[in-house]
Design brief:
The structure is a homodimer of 276-residue chains. With 276 residues, chain A is of the alpha+beta class. In chain A, 27% of the residues lie in helices and 30% in strands. In chain A, the strands form 2 sheets. In chain A, strands 8, 9, 10, 11, 12, 13, 14, 15 and 16 form a 9-stranded mixed β-sheet that branches. In chain A, strands 2-1-7-6-4-5 form a 6-stranded antiparallel β-sheet. The two termini of chain A are 23 Å apart. The model of chain A has no long low-confidence stretch (mean pLDDT 96). Chains A and B meet through β3, α1 and α4 of A and β3, α1 and α4 of B. β3 of chain A pairs antiparallel with β3 of chain B.
């Protein structure tokens, strides 16, 4: 089910700048019945991205109305994807000053992850597709996702569950659709996202949960040498929750058997209602 | 006028991966009556990009049929934009193995460039928005254009005609919608495009024209220091042709009064029919 600007509709004008230039943002979130999970955090990220791109973000109420209409009658878990584009038109790349942003709400079935058994950890590869660095776009969930598309093709070809992406300096940034945490000496560490990557909502929740468990968390540059120090590794996003990593395939294959802190965090997030 | 997959139609499905991820390519070319200019070069770049992204490029005949239908009855100059997306669907970022690529052909009026008088040169700024580097995407004309959109907003705010874009190492790459050539000691030089930028069709034609005039051309890293050595500077693309630069606004403003080689190249390109 898709709503475009409040109307049930599965097409959009071909002059939309989301198509023409990737000029927009998106959010992917879990719906429980009609209730979007962690709405405030998703909306805050969308608003932050819109501010940085100079797009007027529609009010929360409009999104919530569309979500309610698109998910009417649903029960159980579904995925909601929100897309905000700058709208139609303009002379080439230049954003029109009178642009009318367009909002798209899509509801999909809850995904399955064939072969993934989170309790046993997932298998990831090191993607060869690099992430470009650009401080102007880092952190926000914009529509320029070709790097993730190409990396995901690598992952599918390798039959892996996810892939780690590195920048041109060989610094770990994130998974294609997840953030990454390392456990080193009992503390959590996760890549800085000031030059590439997306500030994930689940990443924020993990950091809060770690705080509540009195586990130290640092955001830092994560080289392959840092990665090699990790005793545990996990991925997270709003749909998968937390996936412990069992195995990294690649030039320097590694296996992990210790999921203890990951499981404590999953427990803490479940207790506070942040994870289903 | 817009054609989608051979049918006159101004909408496309909202699950198109061009919108969802910028998963596609485009070409912008000049139409003279019904005739696309430099068709072979535009098609070759599109095919190269499609190969690199793993998208099956529709045959030349299909594009030509769409172009003929969309431009039927037109005379004079128009702009044709071709968009090739990977099509609809797939599970998240992963490209579906059975994707049916979608082709979009849009015809627009020939643009005007208010205030631009190419014979007197144009005024450009140094954009503060950087270009990210990614060897996997460099050179091709893909749909991930947020950097150009944000830089174009800077240019519009400055009331300039175009803007120069630099990478994170302060190397000049290109304009937002043009390639850049410098004249140093009577020879041409233009930035290498192996980590960022688009291999422009007019760039190729300029390099051939320089050859025919026995003017040396090099592709190289262009720092601000290199830029400061240039006695002439010009921009080029398939629509504007060649624009000599009169003035660079920015931290180190520069003015250019010598357009001699630029004019010789324009003359040579006109003589061979490459420029209107």
């Amino acid at each position: 089910v898709t709503y475009v600007d409040g109307t049930k509709c599965a097409v959009l004008p071909s002059d939309d700048r989301g198509l023409q230039y990737g000029d927009g943002l998106f959010e992917t979130l879990a719906l429980s019945g009609q209730t979007p999970q962690h709405w405030a955090l998703h909306l805050a990220r969308l608003q932050d991205g819109a501010r940085r791109l100079g797009i007027a973000c529609p009010a929360s109420d409009l999104w919530r109305q569309d979500l309610a209409a698109a998910s009417a009658g649903l029960s159980g878990r579904h995925v909601a994807k929100l897309i905000l584009t700058r709208g139609s038109g303009g002379r080439g790349y230049t954003p029109p000053t009178d642009a009318r942003p367009r909002r798209i709400v899509q509801i999909s079935p809850w995904p399955t992850w064939p072969g993934v058994t989170p309790e046993h950890g997932v298998r990831v590869i090191e993607c060869s597709v690099p992430l470009g660095r650009n401080r102007v776009l880092a952190g926000i969930k914009h529509l320029n996702r070709l790097e993730q598309v190409l990396a995901s093709a690598e992952i599918a070809a390798a039959g892996a569950d996810e892939g780690l992406m590195f920048d041109d300096r060989a610094q770990l940034v994130e998974g294609t659709r997840s953030n990454v945490f390392l456990v080193i000496d009992g503390a959590l560490c996760t890549p800085r996202l000031d030059e590439a990557g997306v500030h994930g909502v689940m990443r924020t929740l993990v950091m809060k949960a770690a705080d509540s468990l009195s586990v130290a968390v640092s955001e830092q540059a994560v080289s392959r040498a840092t990665l090699a120090q990790a005793s545990e590794l996990f991925l997270c996003n709003s749909l998968i929750g937390l996936w412990p990593v069992r195995e990294i395939d690649g030039p320097a294959p590694r296996r992990y058997a210790d999921f203890a802190l990951t499981r404590r965090l999953i427990g803490a997030l479940r207790d506070e209602g942040s994870l289903a």
